[in-house]
């Protein structure tokens, strides 16, 4: 996938009143809410486990508007994930790079979510969070452990980041440009 320059897209999206819908899933403690509020306020905020969801209106660095849904990831809440998936333009799945023990559970949850009909063909941004922690699994290592089953039917990218320090988040938003473009192509050819 080539990197796409989005500098001209802000007014384009404004004119067409397109606001992309991004849904962020992942196990509890993965760092989804920390990430949401880091993107919203540019600082690390204290969070508590999300029961239900949080939602914010955001813009990429070049001004493309999007709505980001952050859905609680505790096991008892995962049955509700499908309710949030309708009209999703891009799925963000957050992995805790320090939690090797629960990686199989996280990948299983990802597979299950991707099996939902609303997500057919939807681009996926996988975020390997908590990269600033010494000993955290590198994105390349996580990539090797991914089951490619359901991902096969999706354009996807994997990036490392730290919601705590902000490291890699701007780059991740840049990557959104790539998956965005694919989604636009999908929308425009429907
Ligand atoms: N070291 C480190 N800790 C992080 C990072 N991101 C989040 N955390 C911590 O991980 C814990 C859980 O973060 P949350 O953002 O609440 O996790 P969540 O994915 O929203 O969890 P649920 O709402 O239960 O689904 C908190 O103690 C955060 O401070 C990170 O990048 N690095
Ligand atoms: Mg949360």
TrEMBL record:
Keywords from the named record: GTP-binding, Magnesium, Membrane, Metal-binding, Nucleotide-binding, Transmembrane, Transmembrane helix
**PROSITE patterns attached here?**
ARF (PS51417)
Lineage start: Eukaryota, Metazoa, Chordata, Craniata, Vertebrata
The keyword S-adenosyl-L-methionine appears for this protein: no
Instruction: Indicate the quaternary assembly.
Output: Interacts with ARL14EP.
Q: Identify the gene encoding this protein.
A: ARL11
Q: Where are the transmembrane segments?
A: 18-37
User: Which SMART domains does UniProt cross-reference here?
Assistant: ARF, SAR
Taxonomy, superkingdom: Eukaryota
* Residues given in the record as GTP binding sites: 26-33, 73, 129-132
The protein's name is ADP-ribosylation factor-like protein 14
Q: Which GO terms describe its biological process?
A: establishment of cell polarity; hematopoietic progenitor cell differentiation
Q: Which GO terms describe its molecular function?
A: GTP binding; GTPase activity; metal ion binding
- NCBIfam families attached here? small_GTP (TIGR00231)
Instruction: Indicate which residues the UniProt annotation says bind Mg(2+).
Output: 33, 50
Which family, according to the similarity comment? Belongs to the small GTPase superfamily. Arf family.
Q: Please explain the role this protein plays, according to its UniProt record.
A: GTPase that recruits MYO1E to MHC class II-containing vesicles via the effector protein ARL14EP and hence controls the movement of these vesicles along the actin cytoskeleton in dendritic cells.
């Amino acid at each position: 996938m080539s990197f796409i320059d989005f500098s001209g897209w802000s007014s384009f999206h404004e004119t067409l009143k397109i606001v992309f819908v991004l849904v962020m899933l992942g196990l509890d403690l993965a760092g989804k809410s920390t990430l949401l509020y880091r993107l919203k306020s540019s600082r690390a905020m204290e969070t508590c486990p999300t029961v239900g969801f949080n939602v914010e209106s955001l813009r990429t660095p070049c001004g493309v508007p999007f709505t980001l849904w952050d859905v609680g990831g505790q096991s008892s809440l995962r049955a509700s994930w499908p309710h949030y998936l309708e009209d999703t333009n891009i799925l963000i799945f957050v992995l805790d790079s320090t939690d090797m023990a629960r990686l199989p559970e996280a990948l299983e949850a990802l597979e299950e979510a991707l099996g939902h009909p609303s997500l057919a063909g939807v681009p996926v941004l996988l975020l390997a969070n908590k990269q600033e922690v010494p000993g955290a699994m590198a994105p390349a290592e996580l990539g090797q452990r991914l089951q490619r089953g359901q991902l096969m039917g999706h354009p996807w990218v994997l990036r490392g980041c730290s919601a705590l320090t902000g490291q890699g988040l701007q780059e991740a938003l840049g990557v959104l440009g790539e998956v965005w473009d694919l989604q636009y192509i999908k929308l425009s050819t429907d």
